[in-house]
Specification:
alpha+beta, Ribosomal Protein L24e, Chain: T, two-stranded antiparallel sheet, elongated
């Protein structure tokens, strides 16, 4: 499986790493994926969705 959040759909993004001489090198930025048990199923959820759900006091609903 790829590194995507099953709730919001976020995935890896591409960016550039800059050296001291300002030379750009392509790199990837991965999101913070964590597995959570939701209704007895393992779901890959990003940390941003977990934080938002706990802040709002709501349960995480997995989209499939």
């Amino acid at each position: 499986m790829s590194r995507t959040c099953q709730v919001c759909g976020r995935s890896t993004t591409s960016s550039q790493s800059r050296s001291h001489s300002n030379i750009a090198t392509k790199r990837t930025q991965r999101i913070n994926i964590q597995t959570k048990n939701i209704n007895g199923e393992k779901v890959k959820v990003c940390a941003k969705c977990i934080k938002t759900a706990t802040k709002n006091g709501k349960e995480i609903r997995a989209l499939k």
